[in-house]
């Protein structure tokens, strides 16, 4: 269980987050939505114990993240960054093995069991054939799955993903989100930020909507991501409707331009 209670964070004189509270249990997929600069990255840093809040608590299974040593926290919660072009062309397998660093004594490297486990994870994600390929020579979607594999080898069961489909093409976005959905079905708690309301509608079990550093809404995706909420978040018109595909009904959102109000002629 991940619990965030009355979290407030300040940079200088201004609050970035104000009294943010929510929770996520095992198997839940919580998406975090909000415009740029609303405090999503700050929230994630606090959840990972990398940033001290002005007030409030982040608890994992009832224990405050601030009271945990870094190796202990790494066994419980892990971070998956956005996929970017790597500075060094490490192989996919070596990149995944970097995830066991928190489990090893000083000056010790991975052992055979770690290599076997890494390959099993790559197989489960469908990218075992890339194990010897350099991360600079694979697609953005494959690189994102590699980062996910690096996290899974930590054995942490709370995964924090920063815009997992950013900069990916249409097909790779779908493939990555399918993996996110599968992780939830295996009991992982997944918290991910997104600028795609349709991803939140399709792949989340709960949604946290942030506006001006505070919680605008939190709960079931269909109840939270209404036309009014989405329009309030992004300052545009949004229509939410139902679409049937592959024998399943889906909620989808469509943005549109709201015409300016007609001018009112003044009586002379």
Strand content: 25-35%
CATH homology-level superfamily of the largest domain: P-loop containing nucleotide triphosphate hydrolases
Low-confidence stretches: none
Rg for CA atoms:
20 Å
Order of helices and strands: EEEHEEHEHHHEHEHEEHHEE
Would you tell me which CATH topology of the largest domain applies?
Rossmann fold
Helicity level = 25-40%
CATH architecture label name of the largest domain: 3-Layer(aba) Sandwich
Q: Kindly provide the name of the CATH class of the largest domain.
A: Alpha Beta
Features:
single chain, 9 helices, six-stranded mixed sheet, 268 residues, four-stranded antiparallel sheet, 2 domains, 30% helix, alpha/beta, Rossmann fold
Give a verbal description of the structure.
The protein has nine helices and twelve strands. It has 268 residues and is of the alpha/beta class. It has two domains: 135 residues, Rossmann fold; 74 residues, no CATH class. The chain has a six-stranded mixed β-sheet with strand order 6-7-8-3-9-10. A hairpin with a 2-residue loop joins strand 1 and strand 2. Helix 5 packs parallel to helix 6. The model has no long low-confidence stretch (mean pLDDT 90).
